[in-house]
Amino acid sequence: MSWSGVYSFVKRIPRGRVVTYGQVARALKLPGGARTAGRAMFACPSGRGIPWHRVIGAQGRILIREPQASLQRKLLESEGTQFAGLRVDMAAHEWKPARKKKKSGRKKRSHKR
DNA sequence: CATCTGACGACCG
DNA sequence: GCGGTCGCCAGAT
Questions:
Q1: Which domain holds residue A25?
Q2: Nucleotide closest in space to A59 (CA vs C1')
Q3: Quick check: A96 and A20 in contact, CB under 8 A?
Q4: Which of the residues in chain A have pLDDT under 50?
Q5: Residue A52 sits in a domain of what CATH number?
Q6: Number of structural domains in chain A
Q7: What pLDDT sits at residue A66?
Q8: What pLDDT shows up at residue A14?
Q9: pLDDT at A113
Q10: What is the spatial distance between Cα A2 and Cα A103, in angstroms, rounded to a whole number?
Q11: Is residue A106 included in any domain, yes or no?
Q12: Does the residue A108 lie in any domain?
């Protein structure tokens, strides 16, 4: 499988921001959903500048096992991501991609409803 | 070719 | 809040 799309997506995640496997799966329309997203991350080649640690499980929970889990948490904290106990503060760090491909984002929220 | 497992998520008790 | 189960896809044995 070409996880290139997934890697590109992950690479676009801004520093101090995080996304869940489910979000990645939905944004890229991956078949199988979160599972496929997780597989893609596992197969993520190291040394490619891919911030794999910014991809976490639902509700900002780290699902992977050690020692990657500790490493991930360390990296996230190092980037400014704050942890609320054993999970990431999703309310403050959940990254919402504007578009699946291309850059540029645009918000159109007139104001609150 | 068949079966199990795995960086998941949602649902149920 | 926690634990167990099912569905989903791909790779490994």
A1: 4-93
A2: B9
A3: no
A4: 113
A5: 1.10.10.10
A6: 1
A7: 82
A8: 92
A9: 27
A10: 20
A11: no
A12: no
Q: Are A60 and A93 in contact (CB under 8 A)?
A: yes
Q: Is the CB of A31 under 7 A from strand C?
A: yes
Nucleotides of B under 7 A from a protein CB: 6-10
Which nucleotides on chain C have any atom < 7 A from a protein Cβ? Answer: 7-11
Question: Both tokens of residue A32?
Answer: 């199988």
Q: Is residue A107 part of a domain?
A: no
The pLDDT score that the predictor gives to residue A19 is 94
Q: Is residue A84 part of a domain?
A: yes
Instruction: Using DSSP bridges, classify how beta strands A55-56 and A19-20 pair: parallel, antiparallel or unpaired.
Output: parallel
- Lookup: tokens for A61: 């929970």
Residues in A 36-95 whose C-beta is less than 7 A from nucleic strand C are 36, 39
How confident is the model at residue A34, as a pLDDT? Answer: 92
Query: What pTM value is reported for the model?
Result: 0.86
